Structure formats: C-alpha cells, structure tokens
C-alpha cells in the first residue's frame, strides 16, 4: 500500500533546508545515503526514500513566495494546475450541507448551488479576461463554501422556504451569496487590486460583483 506525504503551501518555507538529505533522494529513489547523525550503537544512520512514498506539494501561484521554489526542486516534481472546478464546488457544498443537518434535503437546494457554481465560473472567466487581473487570480471553490453556513443561518432552525434559497425570482443573489461576496470574495479581490487607485479598484470590483450577484445564468 502506498504512503503519501502532503506538503501544504510548500513555497512558504525553505524546502532545500527543510528536506536536507531528502532533497536529492526525491530524485534518486531507493538510493541509500549515510547521515551525519549516529544511532545508539554509534553507527552512522542511513536514509532511503522508497518508491511507494508519494510526496504531494500544494501552493498558490499568486503568492510571491513562489519565487523561493528553485529549479532544482521544480524538476523533482510533476506540476498539475488545479483551477476552479464547478463540480468540485457542488460536491463539497453537498457534503458540508449534509454535515450541518439543516433539516432540508440536499436535492431541494442543489439547483441553487448549481446556479452559484455557474455564476462563479462566469466570475472567473471575467477575472481571467480582465487586464487588471488574469488567470492566476481566478478564485478557487473553497472561497465560496461559507455560503453553506450562511444559507443554513438564513433559513433558520426550521426551514419553511420551498424555493429561492440562494437566488430570487429575478435571478439576483439573496443574502447568503451577498455575504460570501462581501465577507470572502470582495476582500480577496481588493487585495489583488491593491496597487490601483481607489476609483479604478472600485470600478473593477463593482463590475465583478454584478457578474456574481446578478448572473444571467440564474433565471
């Protein structure tokens, strides 16, 4: 059975220093090297990384500390881009919704969450095409998951609504989605746009807010 080591936000530390002798062994699996340390008998300790140990690292591409990842380390990993995934958002929201035991079946609210996923995808397309942002600033689905708790609080302990959980009949966002924008997405985008003057920044934020809060996909 394989073993997995996950290094979350691996660019936030000096990996060459942290890994030490393991650094070269990531490339030369099953090679045994002697360490400076000694065991209780005074013999040199040895280190080997087996083939069935998989090392997975995560990082955020817009984090400036990514510059700390040198080319020697880069070649020891395969690189996989993980962009926004609408189905991943719906799946994670379903799991979180069921954990909350809100008293409302998932199939009742699922259509509204799918509209949210479509609206988030549209938002990311606008971010991707924006001359002020770009593809590296697209928003991951985890930033939207607080909407699950916001909806549970919005509905109360004994939900009575039969429809329109996240969107009203006009296709406009209701309180849970507005809260996600105001408390999660807008502050994040404000940081991304911090180098702009206030007028340009607010104009872009207002434009993006309409994409999420009044999406054409929510009918």
Labels describing this entry:
9% strand; 219 residues; two-stranded parallel sheet
Low-confidence stretches: none
Radius of gyration: 23 Å
| Overall outline | elongated
Beta-strand segment tally: 4
Strand content: 5-15%
Strands ordered across the widest β-sheet: 1-4
The separation of the N and C termini measures 48 Å
Helical content class: 40-55%
Structure explained in plain terms:
Helices cover 44% and strands 9% of the residues. It contains eight helices and four strands, in the order E-H-H-E-E-E-H-H-H-H-H-H. It has helices at 15-19, 22-25, 71-74, 86-100, 106-129, 146-155, 175-192, 198-213; strands at 3-7, 33-38, 44-47, 53-57. The chain has a two-stranded parallel sheet. The chain has a two-stranded antiparallel ribbon with strand order 2-3. Strand 2 and strand 3 form a beta hairpin. Helix 4 runs antiparallel to helix 5 and helix 5 packs antiparallel against helix 8. The protein is elongated and about 75 Å long.
Nutshell version of this structure?
With 219 residues, the protein is mostly helical. It has helices at 15-19, 22-25, 71-74, 86-100, 106-129, 146-155, 175-192, 198-213, and strands at 3-7, 33-38, 44-47, 53-57.
Spell out the blueprint of helices and strands.
Layout: E1 3-7, H1 15-19, H2 22-25, E2 33-38, E3 44-47, E4 53-57, H3 71-74, H4 86-100, H5 106-129, H6 146-155, H7 175-192, H8 198-213
Parallel strand pairs: 1-4
Antiparallel strand pairs: 2-3
Helix pairs in contact: 4-5, 4-6, 5-8, 6-7, 7-8
């Amino acid at each position: 059975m394989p073993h997995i080591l996950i290094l979350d936000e691996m660019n936030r530390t000096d990996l060459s220093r942290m890994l030490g002798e393991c650094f070269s062994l990531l490339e030369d699996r099953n090679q045994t090297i002697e360490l400076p340390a000694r065991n209780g008998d005074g013999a040199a300790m040895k280190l080997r990384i087996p083939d069935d140990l998989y090392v997975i690292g995560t990082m955020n591409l817009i984090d400036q500390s990514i510059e700390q990842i040198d080319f020697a380390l880069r070649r020891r990993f395969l690189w996989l881009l993980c962009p926004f995934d609408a189905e991943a958002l719906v799946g994670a929201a379903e799991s979180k919704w069921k954990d909350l035991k809100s008293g409302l079946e998932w199939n009742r609210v699922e259509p509204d969450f799918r509209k949210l996923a479509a609206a988030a995808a549209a938002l990311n397309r606008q971010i991707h095409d924006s001359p002020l942002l770009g593809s590296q600033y697209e928003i991951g689905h985890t930033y939207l998951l607080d909407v699950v708790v916001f909806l549970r609080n919005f509905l109360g302990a004994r939900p009575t609504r039969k429809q329109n959980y996240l969107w009203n009949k006009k296709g406009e966002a209701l309180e849970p989605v507005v809260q996600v924008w105001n408390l999660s997405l807008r502050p994040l985008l404000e940081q991304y746009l911090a180098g702009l003057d206030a007028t340009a920044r607010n104009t872009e934020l207002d434009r993006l807010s309409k994409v999420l809060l009044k999406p054409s996909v929510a009918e």
